């Protein structure tokens, strides 16, 4: 259960958590056209709170809306501010922030011309997405029988509500078989991403991750590549097959919710030593130092509230 905060920002105003309700004819609820973000705010080493890469997330929200031809009735600056204000109003020092743009009620059917474009910002406490143990020791990943979206079926660069049905099918399938997270292959059979994370392998000290062709352009993925570059670890963005993961030295996932999670097994094959490897650990450490404001080099990634 999500732990309630006091307020939710809805269409420019604060409403109490329990009153943030919508009509049953809300269009997004019926057809899945909506866009959203997931952002984390951390309590920093100096006691202040910083939202991590806030403008980049809000920019991606606007990109998603642009792809989906949804005209957000607020500016990027206003949504940035709404995120800051919501945390302040709720006296939160750490949170997961969920901006959501959705089509309200009005017309039904597949050509909702005049339905209002509504915006919410919700903030709640969200612990380790794939478990504390997963974060520390690594998770068991399983290739799903569901294929990731073909680029002409769904818009993979947009974080669209409806895109996540595919993720839910994949995740539910593998969890029911006893695994922690699902890996999805693209329509040509190459590794795409996990149900809610980007994926990386490490082989002979070099990082490899799928190109942005058919996956969500993860902001954490961008952090990983920046941190790798700054740590002197080389990387390639290139497609690869699932068996290349089987014989990798290390595999890890990245995402706002999942942060930097090591993978210790894929499809019942252990990866490398079966424990988080040295490159994964280095990147993970560097990531947590960055989000907590412990490395001045990445100060530009933080919005203090
Ligand atoms: N791929 C997918 C499909 C995805 O959903 C996410 C984020 C990523 C990659 C990584 O993107 P980024 O967060 O910008 O590094 N998944 C969000 C959903 C979590 C949820 O269950 O809800 C997240 O991590 O916030």
Describe, in plain words, how this protein is organized in 3D.
The protein is of the alpha+beta class and 305 residues long. It has two domains: 118 residues, Aminotransferase class 4, branched-chain amino acid transferase, N-terminal domain (D-amino Acid Aminotransferase, Chain A, domain 1, 2-Layer Sandwich), CATH 3.30.470; 160 residues, Alpha-Beta Barrel (D-amino Acid Aminotransferase, Chain A, domain 2). Helices cover 28% and strands 27% of the residues. It contains eight helices and 17 strands. Strands 8, 9, 10, 11, 12, 13, 14, 15 and 16 form a nine-stranded mixed β-sheet that branches. Helix 2 packs across helix 3. It is globular. 43% of the residues are buried. The structure holds ligand PPE.
Which short descriptors sum up this protein?
305 residues, alpha+beta, D-amino Acid Aminotransferase, Chain A, domain 1, D-amino Acid Aminotransferase, Chain A, domain 2, eight-stranded antiparallel beta sheet, globular, binds ligand PPE
Bound molecules: ligand PPE
Write down the CATH topology of the largest domain: D-amino Acid Aminotransferase, Chain A, domain 2
CATH architecture grouping of the largest domain: Alpha-Beta Barrel
Radius of gyration: 19 Å
Helix content range of the residues, please?
25-40%
Shape: globular
Major sheet attributes: 9 strands, mixed
Oligomer: single chain
Provide a short characterization of the protein structure:
By secondary structure, this protein is of the alpha+beta class. It is built from eight helices and 17 strands. α2 (54-67) packs across α3.
